[in-house]
Amino acid sequence: MNLKHVEAFRAVMTAGSMTAAAKELFTSQPNVSRLISQLERETGLVLFQRTGARLIPTSEGTAFFREVERAYVGLQGLATAAAQIRDLGTGRLRIASMPSAGLTLVPRAIARFQRLHPGVTVSLHMNTSGTINHWTASQFCDVGVVVYVSEASNCDVELLSTVPAMCVLPADHRLAKKSVIRPADLQGESFISLCHGDGTRSQMDEVFARAGVERVLAIESQYTAMGCEMVRCGMGVTLAHPIVARDFLGPGIAVRRFLPEVLFSNYLLFPPHRPRERIASAFVEVLRDLHNEFIAEMKVPQRKARK
Asked: How far apart are CA 115 and CA 135, in angstroms?
C-alpha cells in the first residue's frame, strides 16, 4: 500500500465515482480502478460493492475511510507546521517583558503581529529585568524586553529606545495648565518615585538635587505603570515612560513634557550563541514600528535606536 493507492481511494469516496475521482486526480478512470483493486488486494479488504457502473462503499470501506481521513488531518497539520517553519522558523514565540512594557506596548505589538501571522502561538511572561535575562539566556524565551542589562549578562543585546520621561499629574492639578514642567514646579509636591536601586530613579534624584528642589517622597512604586495608577488615585505626581503615560491619558490624567530630560532606556535580549529566530526578528520589527508610532503620537524626541 502506498500513497497513490490511498489518494485514489479517498478521491473515489469523496467524489462518489471512479470517473469523478479520475478527473480530480488528473488521471484516467482505468488507472483509478487499477489502484483501488491493488489496495483491496494489499489490505485484504473489500472496499466497494460493484453494481454495474456504480460503486457502493462496504462497511469495511467506510471504516477504512474514517482512518484515512484521520491520517489526512495529521498530514494537513504537518503541512501547516512546515509552512510556519518555512515562513517564520517556528510556530511558537515566547516573549518576556518587564511589567511597564508588558502591560502597555508589548500586548499591542502581539495583537498586530498575530494579525500578520495568525498561525503563530505567542506566550507572554512578565517579571523583573534580572529574571528576564535568566529566562532569555536559558532559551526559555525567544526575546526579552528589559530596562537594564546586567554586566554579567551573556545575552545578545539591542537597544530598543531611549526616550525622555513625561510628567504625569492629575488633570485638575495646578500645574496641568503648563506645557512644560520643571523641577522647581514640583517643590513640596507629593512625588511618586521609583524604588531605590533603579537607574532611572537615580537620574530623577540627581535632577532635583541639582535644582535644589525638595519633593515629598512618601510613596515609591516598583514600576512606572504603578506610579501612574497612583496618580489616577490622587496620591501625587510622577515621571513615567511616555508609552506608559500614554495608556493612562484620560479625563482625570494630564501628561506634560518634563525638563531637563530624565531618560528611560529599553533593551531587547536574545538567547546567546545561536542564530536569531526569524519569528523573533519578525516580532521585533513589529514592536519597533509600534513603539515609534506611539512615541511620535506623544510628540516625544527619541534617541536613535541601534539595530
From this structure: 26
